[in-house]
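Note to self: the last two entries modelled the partners one at a time, which told us nothing about the interface. This time every component goes in together.
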Amino acid sequence: MKPEDSRIATIEVLYFARLREAFGREREKIELPGNVQDVAGLTAWLRNRGETWARELAPGKPVRIAVNQDMAAADTPLGNGDEVAYFPPVTGG
Amino acid sequence: MTVRVQTGDFDVGAEMAAMRRGNPKIGAIASFVGVVRDLNEGADVAEMTLEHYPGMTEKALEKIVGEARARWDIYDALVVHRVGTLKPTDQIVLVVVASAHRGEAFQACEFLMDYLKTRAPFWKKEKTPEGGRWVDARSADDAAADRWS
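The predicted structure of the combined assembly is written out below.
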């Protein structure tokens, strides 16, 4: 009935460390809105969720993003089944 | 080459012995052990918890080891990183590199630590008398990694 359904892309988004605590979740499935095509678009969409999201993901905040377990850039494209992760700069070793 | 992420402790001597066993060409083994300190940025640290990104962390470490092998003539490399709750004096990380001569082993070992600290997804949260706090990334670590590029 709804031909656009076949084009709906679902991604899994993971959060680590400070961001996991701030957002109160480790992971979630998100149906990509039609206008979100890349990492920058997803981040902008997440910021609209509310104050905490807008603050933690504000431009200039040191947030790293990986797509399918490789470091990503703002223009890294997103598609169905992708695993996207948001996390602070790493502090291992 | 081997990369391991584990909650349990590691035995440096056993790991080094295993590496040199069976390869008489090895003439040098360099190792580095990172240890939990009881003081960081002015606060007493009672314990810390290390978090990682299962899957990506191992991939990132393997990539870093691959880069070391491409840069230096080394026979073997091992990275073991612990996660979970650790206390001061506990071992956190082990890097072992084997080569024919010491120069390659020393350099590759330092390179692996510098890259690990800036590129492998691990995060430390310290427990201090004031409560828990996430450790901030240090610009000195970025500078150390940049030396190799």
